Amino acid sequence: MTATMQARQRRKFWGGFGYHAFGIGAALFFFAPFAWTGLASLRTGSEAQSPPLPPWPTHGISFDTYAVLDTFGAGIWQHTFNSMVVALATVVLTVIVSLLAGYGFSRYRFPLKNVFFVLIIATLMIPFQSILTPLFIILAKLGLNNSLVGLVLVYVTLQLPFSVFMMRNAFDAVPREIEEAARIDGARDLTLLVRVLLPLVTPGLASVAIFAFLNSWNEFLAALILLSDNEKYTLPVLMTAVRAGRLGAINWGAVQAGVMVMTIPCLAVFLILQRYYMRGLMAGAVK
Amino acid sequence: MTSPALTLAVPARARRRRARLGQWQGLLYIAPAMALVIVFFVIPVLFTFWMSFHDWPLLGQPEWIGLGNYMQMLKDTRFLSSLRFTAYYTVITTIAIFIVAFPLALFVEKQRRGVGFYRTIFFMPVVVGLATASLLWVWLANVDSGLIGPAIRMMGFTGKKVNLLATFDSAFWTIIVMVVWKVAGFTMIILLTGLQSIPVELNEAARIDGAGRWQRFRHVTLPLMRRTIALALILSVTGSVLAFDQFYIMTSGGPQNRMISVVYYIFNQSFVSFHLGYGSALSIALLGILIVLSVVQLRLLRVGDDK
């Protein structure tokens, strides 16, 4: 009797051991590059060009690499500011536009409704990489080439299929009785939307906002093509200059620092708002 | 109490008026979204078609040349080799991602202690940008200041310097490892949703019938996951066909210009050589390829429905 119990316990122990050995091994593979870069970026300037073995600073912690990064382009604060402005403006506009559109598609009937909806969703089928050339020309015609405003408008458009779909579903899930009751109490249209319905669709909006932030913060190709002015570069475009190096020499310390500057906001947003991120991802996947 | 007839009549008229008003209000609500989609999407798509029939320099007059760009495309060996490379890359990446992501999905499916922690860690690279990931890995793969090459040398496998990005094969596999690191967590979560939608009873029943672990996976899990697998496949294939950042940042299209993907080639034609018309024709070709792929994949999805 005790023998079988012992055997079972032993099997459970080794099962758990194998499980966590695999898990920790895999976790190391996915996490190590971040840790390695983060630690290496804190080495002194003289150390920064040597291989990161060991990754941690051996001559004391310093921010030399970040100081070097600051000498590229118009300074790291300017480019971080550009990226932040673009990302936050994309978030705000995407939230407003998809909130209105989601409400319209969920609650109203109007001619060509389905055509319009399919048109928005169809943009998912056509990759924006294939329309960059005319986009470049149209933005020039509108006087929005080489401008962060133009870039934001393009990013908002790219976010719309997912966001409108998400918000229509969010509104569909709100019982109509709540609206009826609010209407009887005298709330109308925008007041109704903002005061009564907004709190009910906030989880959906959170997902929309997170995806808008991450995608616009990380986007590279459109920014590379649409921005030509050094001062307006977003972080990924700035980093191509760092990557290209000066006089044939690449400062790898600046690369590490740049990777950290671009990574930390993404990881922070993801880790803090993970629940909403995953909800959005599942909603997209299940569809 | 008023008579029922009266209470019914008034709201009916009001409702009809509100319905007519509602038509316009509905359009008003979706107007901003539609304006953006039309200006920044529908018009550019149509404009791409229009441009593809022109010789369209950056400055100066566009000239109508009919199908000229398309004829040129068929004879353009660099375009054809970019197509071949993109196809090769797509197949290898997709296989590599699935080989890593499937075990991970099975691993994080079980409700055990620490599973939430593992899911979060595996997923972390997904939320950083592809450009960021490429930069990180181009440093790791650097011959003098990186990690991988010097580490291999230090462990004594070879006395020479290891430059991973110098030859096509090693650079290609470095990029594959980077992409798997970046994307596997995403595919894992997609596959996980599929795994979780399989009723537990089915696996139990198969187990009672004496099916082994592999048999259960092969005959219960896999068939029930067809839809999810198809979805993960679509996302992986589409993403790979459109790859650009990793080649631009990690290898600048090298060694020997053998890593030019289709999007990279379009980028070069349109925004380096400024052959905007030709670039548009190439874009239309890319669009065609993606539509064909979508149709094939949608059929895959429908096959999933039958089963």
What is the ordering of alpha helices and beta strands of chain A? HHHHHHHHHHHH
Q: Percent helix among the residues of chain A? A: over 70%
Shape summary of chain A = flat
The assembly state of the depicted protein chains is: heterodimer
CATH class descriptor name of the largest domain in chain A = Mainly Alpha
Give the SSE order of chain B as H and E letters: HEEHHHHHHHHHHHH
Unreliable spans of chain B:
1-10
Question: Can you tell me the CATH topology of the largest domain in chain A?
Answer: MetI-like fold
Tell me the structural class of chain A: mainly alpha
* SS summary, helix count of chain A: 12
Let me know the number of strands of chain B: 2
Mean pLDDT of chain B: 87
Number of domains of chain A: 2
Largest β sheet strand count, sense and barrel closure of chain B: 2 strands, antiparallel
Helical content of chain B (DSSP H or I, runs of 4+)? over 70%
The N- to C-terminal Cα distance of chain A equals 52 Å
The SS-based structural class of chain B is: mainly alpha
Under the CATH scheme, the architecture of the largest domain in chain B is Orthogonal Bundle
Radius of gyration of chain B: 27 Å
Write up what this structure looks like.
The complex is a heterodimer of chains A (287) and B (307). The model of chain A has no long low-confidence stretch (mean pLDDT 89). Chain A is flat. Chain A is mostly helical and 287 residues long. Chain A has helices spanning 2-40, 64-69, 76-107, 113-122, 132-141, 148-172, 176-184, 189-218, 221-226, 235-244, 252-272, 274-286. Chain A has two domains: 2-62, no CATH class; 67-286, MetI-like fold (Orthogonal Bundle), CATH 1.10.3720. The longest helix of chain A is centred in the N-terminal third of the chain and has 39 residues, at 2-40. Helices cover 77% and strands 1% of the residues of chain B. Chain B has helices at 4-51, 68-75, 77-109, 115-127, 130-140, 148-154, 168-196, 200-208, 213-224, 226-241, 245-251, 262-272, 276-306; strands at residues 54-55, 63-64. Chain B has a two-stranded antiparallel sheet with strand order 1-2. Chain B is mostly helical and 307 residues long. At the A-B interface, helix 1, helix 3, helix 4, helix 5 and helix 6 of A face helix 1, helix 4, helix 5, helix 6 and helix 7 of B.
